[in-house]
Every structure is written in structure tokens, then in C-alpha cells.
Amino acid sequence: MEKPNHHILVCASFRPNGDPKGKCHRKNSHEFLPYIENEILDRGLDNVHVSSTCCLKMCEEGPVMVVYPQNTWYGHVESEGVIDEILDALEAGKVAKEYLL
Description:
The chain has about 100 residues and is α+β, with helices and mostly antiparallel strands. The chain has a single domain (about 5-100), classed as Glutaredoxin. Helices cover about 30% and strands about 25% of the residues. The protein is built from three helices and four strands. The protein has a four-stranded mixed β-sheet. Strand 3 (about 65-70) and strand 4 form a beta hairpin. The chain is globular. The model has no long low-confidence stretch (mean pLDDT about 90).
């Protein structure tokens, strides 16, 4: 497997003891993972990986998503429509400014 060009991190609010407690989890960020994976496949973005994370410590902005290596942080990622806008921007080599943190 080749090293990905982009890595999308989705906050799942897990704390060191494994309990999901934060705003991202309460707003069901973990349920976006299959949607993001399917969109990546549908768009032919073979060089993009997705991972859920422990708490990213931006709870007031949650759900939070980060795109690396650009280090682009997005907040209030609360719907599939927002995810589509972020992925559209990623494909175009731009950022979805409305959701930037």
C-alpha cells in the first residue's frame, strides 16, 4: 500500500480510559466514518485514508475533522452535506472556508 496523500481524522471523543464523552461523540461523529469512506471510494480518491481519533480537545467546535498533511481543521461537521463540501474542496486543492477552525 502506498503512503496516502491525505489523512482525514474524525474526532470520536474517546478519552484515555476508552469512554466516549465529548461533544463530537454526542453529535454522532462516529456515524460519519462509513459515509466518508463511501464518498472517498465513489470519488476515486484512492490516496485518502480516514481514521477516528481520541478527543481532539476542540469540544466547543465539534464535531471536528482534520485533514493532513495540510493540517486543516474543520469544525461543526454536523451533516453529510458539510462533509461533501469538505471533500469537494479537498478534491479541488482548496479548503472549505466556512468550516475552518
